[in-house]
């Protein structure tokens, strides 16, 4: 691969090379932290990397042991993901480069003349490469988005990405990026590391050779990450660039400093792609609650959002047997009055997920987990979906559930429920003058009644025209059919 983590004194480094996460002392630290491969400070050798690890000692065993013992403790510091892209993904990237947009060189730190914005057609690269790689990163190192202070949950999005055409002599000085994640992809490297640093007779190669002897590393044409250890001492991690690294991608936290060295004696372009992933604060993520989770899915991760779960949402086929159904929830008489008062006490939600179309009072979206009566009703709704709607194959379901109350004159405009699969509404309080629920395609008018449940495909557009009384109240929800995504 041409990747060298260059060290001046390998023997000494070897002794301090144990990566060991110290217990699980922090709150919400990753419970299943696994030792990543290919990241510092693990040195590589030709005998196989496993020789280099000291077997981690379980903290409990260690502290409770009566025997004399000792163990190395190396706190975890962080890292990045390295990925070799498939031929299909590379083809997509070359196609995007073929349709590159405006020049963006003046926006960048580098001394590289030609850079152009790219488009991610139909979010193909984000969905198929970036998102899964971010899942892997978060699995290993945690979520850098958690450190950004915002009042709501927001999904990640690809903010900008661009292609760089680097000519000989051009370089990118030490810099970092804006965003949560950044990435680089080496598309074309028209030289080998040896040509640049060892085998040539050009003055640049001679200088590199001499510098390599003095400092331990010759750097023509290389890529370097800078990082510090727990003592604050700075270190380098080198990617000794060359043709074998074509198709390699690095996903790293945006604040990780790095630089790109110039190459020489070659008239071709070195072509790379860079980009940043940010929190999309234009979109808020409602709280999603877990229903029938299988054991292998970690609930803590699922409750955050639809995009960072290691799962994918199953979409309904174009034609389905049943699009909408009306039902009556048997125990409605026992619960509605109590539920109505609970909903009025809850008032407006604090997470601010009220959609623009909704002119009414909307609670937070966590009623499934916070209200036992709601949970029982939603479980009943899910059984009806399984029995009567013939849902497509899925591993499990999750839900979002909230309540709405309409005063006189309030309404909700035409809308649908986005990426969820099925939605429902359960009527809690229906005074005289309560507006009906209207559907667009197929057209339909549904009169609300206490205890009535309407279940419908989430993609169906619907609205509630201006209400003619105070206190029309319903519990609504979205049901997501999900599949576990193998990482
Ligand atoms: Fe960069
Ligand atoms: Fe709705």
Helices and strands in order, then pairings?
Elements: E1 3-4, H1 10-15, H2 59-64, E2 81-84, H3 87-98, E3 114-117, H4 124-141, E4 156-166, E5 172-175, E6 181-188, H5 193-197, H6 203-215, E7 223-228, E8 234-239, E9 248-253, E10 258-260, E11 270-279, E12 289-290, H7 299-302, E13 311-313, E14 324-328, H8 332-346, E15 358-359, E16 361-362, H9 367-370, H10 372-388, E17 396-406, E18 411-415, E19 422-429, E20 437-440, E21 443-446, E22 452-457, E23 462-464, E24 472-484
Antiparallel strand pairs: 1-8, 2-9, 3-4, 4-11, 5-10, 6-9, 6-11, 7-8, 7-10, 12-17, 13-24, 14-22, 15-18, 16-17, 17-24, 18-23, 19-22, 19-24, 20-21, 20-23
Q: Can you offer a commentary on this structure?
A:
This protein has helices spanning 10-15, 59-64, 87-98, 124-141, 193-197, 203-215, 299-302, 332-346, 367-370, 372-388, and strands spanning 3-4, 81-84, 114-117, 156-166, 172-175, 181-188, 223-228, 234-239, 248-253, 258-260, 270-279, 289-290, 311-313, 324-328, 358-359, 361-362, 396-406, 411-415, 422-429, 437-440, 443-446, 452-457, 462-464, 472-484. The protein has 487 residues and is of the alpha+beta class. It folds into two domains: 2-42 and 77-279, Sandwich (Jelly Rolls), CATH 2.60.120; 289-484, Jelly Rolls (Sandwich), CATH 2.60.120.620. The strands form four sheets. Strands 12, 13, 14, 16, 17, 19, 22 and 24 form an eight-stranded antiparallel β-sheet that branches. Strand 7 (223-228) and strand 8 form a beta hairpin. It is elongated. The model is unreliable at 1-54 and 289-309 (pLDDT under 50). Residues 415, 417, 462 line the site of one fe (ii) ion. The site of one fe (ii) ion has 3 residues, from loops.
